[in-house]
Description:
Blueprint: E1 2-11, E2 14-16, H1 25-28, H2 33-45, E3 56-63, E4 76-79, E5 84-90, H3 93-98, H4 101-117, H5 129-142
Parallel strand pairs: 1-3, 3-5
Antiparallel strand pairs: 1-2, 4-5
Amino acid sequence: MKVWTVAEYSTPGEVFTFEHDTRVSSKYVDDKIYPLFHDQISKFFENKDFGEGVKEIMYFQRCLAKEHHHPITAIYTYSKTIKKIQCVVELHYESALEMEIPEFRNYVVERYLSETAKFSGYKIKDFDHEGYLKELELFFNNQKMKR
């Protein structure tokens, strides 16, 4: 299964992605979190199978200041034809600013697990949601990312 993440972070005056080293994004780019969501999670799940119903999960992580925040109409989408779930993981910008890196890591993990748990509402035929969620928890535990 393909599992991957894209992200959108904000600073005063601009919206940016990981490459910008600023107050909140620098916490994301730290040596533990960035590789986790851009290399390791994909490798961990690449040979795993949770049924024919879902072949790809894409997480869209957002951490935007109020002035950059634009509403998203759907937190989750599922395409039956391409067997893909897209999930928005919304991080609270002001809270993230106050967190030290270890606390921020825990917060990100908690948000991913919380949002992933909600996939069960889809009732996707031939998708082992519980098995996927357990493997995601195992992945975070293996990476020493506390919950």
